[in-house]
Prior knowledge:
Blueprint: H1 2-48, H2 51-59, H3 66-76, H4 78-81, E1 88-94, E2 100-103, H5 115-121, E3 126-127, E4 136-143, E5 149-157, H6 160-210, H7 225-281, H8 287-319, E6 326-329, H9 331-348, E7 352-356, E8 364-367, H10 368-384, E9 391-399, E10 402-409, H11 431-436, H12 443-453, E11 457-463, E12 467-475, H13 490-493
Parallel strand pairs: 7-9
Antiparallel strand pairs: 1-2, 1-5, 3-4, 4-5, 6-8, 9-10, 10-12, 11-12
Helix pairs in contact: 1-6, 6-7, 7-8, 8-12, 9-10, 10-12
Amino acid sequence: xxxxxxxxxxxxxxxxxxxxxxxxxxxxxxxxxxxxxxxxxxxxxxxxxxxxxxxxxxxxxxxxxxxxxxxxxxxxxxxxxxxxxxxxxxxxxxxxxxxxxxxxxxxxxxxxxxxxxxxxxxxxxxxxxxxxxxxxxxxxxxxxxxxxxxxxxxxxxxxxxxxxxxxxxxxxxxxxxxxxxxxxxxxxxxxxxxxxxxxxxxxxxxxxxxxxxxxxxxxxxxxxxxxxxxxxxxxxxxxxxxxxxxxxxxxxxxxxxxxxxxxxxxxxxxxxxxxxxxxxxxxxxxxxxxxxxxxxxxxxxxxxxxxxxxxxxxxxxxxxxxxxxxxxxxxxxxxxxxxxxxxxxxxxxxxxxxxxxxxxxxxxxxxxxxxxxxxxxxxxxxxxxxxxxxxxxxxxxxxxxxxxxxxxxxxxxxxxxxxxxxxxxxxxxxxxxxxxxxxxxxxxxxxxxxxxxxxxxxxxxxxxxxxxxxxxxxxxxxxxxxxxxxxxxxxxxxx
Length: 495
């Protein structure tokens, strides 16, 4: 590719030089010819308009030998007429036939009758001709007292000077073309290298990207289109790398999710199968252990049902098909309702529930049931993971268009390395303890989805052995949001 493009640049430059020099050559040659022709006719008119010269020529007609006298006068004016016997000569023609009587030419030549000669034979001076003709000539008639043309002074230039100058110009232009070709080739190679280097770099980087290596970057410092293209390519490579990494993470999470689902479902299924197989194998089992077995089967079935319901809930969130019933309601009243709902459970563990809600806490626009679901989940976790006799504090506040609800306990706490993964699906800090308490590992994932769809956030602060504080932040005027932060379409809100 490099060689092909380089030689294309070279060919283009050579063609440009050739075309440019050809145009220059044509216009220069035509200009020289036109200038030389105009100079000739202007010179002749100027000389023959001199009354002294024309008077001497007409006076020569009265001499005994008028032709010799005319020749003598013309010889005297050779310098002003530019006569050099090589390229320019004068002729004295007979006034009736146009025959050559005398001339300054060294060698006699056959003189053709030209249009200017014919005009002079008819009594008119002729200063003019075609710039592209092979010769230039003028003809001046000398008339007697009777008005008849007795002689014609004819000056002819064979344009040899113009031809010699033209040849010299052509040779000079050809030499310039040769030098221009060399310069063009050098410039084309430099230009090709300058332009193609980033393109070659992009080609190699693209090949590396195709092979899975996204580390190749183009270092182009120019601010022109090539630099913009290089920056765009680097940004594209970075985005591709980020996308690939995200896909890999998503694939890892998917595999982990499938494994977690399988594990979560296998545990209750194993228990159900074990107890169900034991019952028919022991038909004489006492009533009390039989009821215990049935109770375990029912509990495990309920746990499976809860897992499936939570999975369906998350799948609806992922598909954007969750219905939100946005309305204005009192957040303070919802906090109190959630507290009342868990009060008996807290009392069974000997916990103290302390609520601190300011009177000026604003009402909010949100899905009341969903917000209470989130608060219930967080508060239930605080009760479960706080040793009996603990203290659970619920506080709230707001300002600048936002409200917050904080639930703080003095429970077992969470290791710092586990906090970033708290909202991952099926993730548990203490898996055995969570299963014993009946958790599915999906509650916080659902809570985060709900809060994010309201445009809010959940923050977690915890110290191992000292307790945990979970803070829910919500906008006062919440609007349904999809995962990208855009309001979903109406169809996405339908079940």
